[in-house]
Amino acid sequence: MILSLALALANDSRDYTRAIAAATEEARVYDGWYTALLVRATRVDGALRATQAEHVAAITGQGPAEAEGTDLVLAVSGQFKDELRFAGDGSTPWTARVSAGGSPCRDIEVVTRKKPSTLDEALYPHLTSWDQLVVLHLEPSACDGREPDGLLLTSARGRAELRWAAP
User: Fold this and answer.
1) What residue ranges do the domains of the chain occupy?
2) pLDDT tens digits for range 79-90
């Protein structure tokens, strides 16, 4: 019984890791010898959110809170820790611009967690102990009903562009 449960969780974990990997893109920005930004961004849409709920339920017996819209969950790190702040309006060292089909999305809510939780680590296996977690939340109307497929991060140190395939 215990062995079969362990095997079921292992298979679920492999499938979940594949689903996360398929929704995650990575980019790096270098400033001379230094890595100014290393970002791994996961697009969490309705389908991936359902997969996450199943994964959390298998581990804890409960699912994550229901949410609408799409989240771009960024695992960020870099040499210049004091500059790892993000906003959509240019008020921080890094500006985040999200697009859908080439058109800009609006009303991006940015939430930063300098210390990801244990649940965050379970949901995003690519998080490391050096990463901060930044969530860019977009309501369903932010991209005129389309799924976001591009993220551009810019600063004085450079730019990183990430693209996802259309859902």
Assistant:
1) 2-163
2) 998 999 999 888
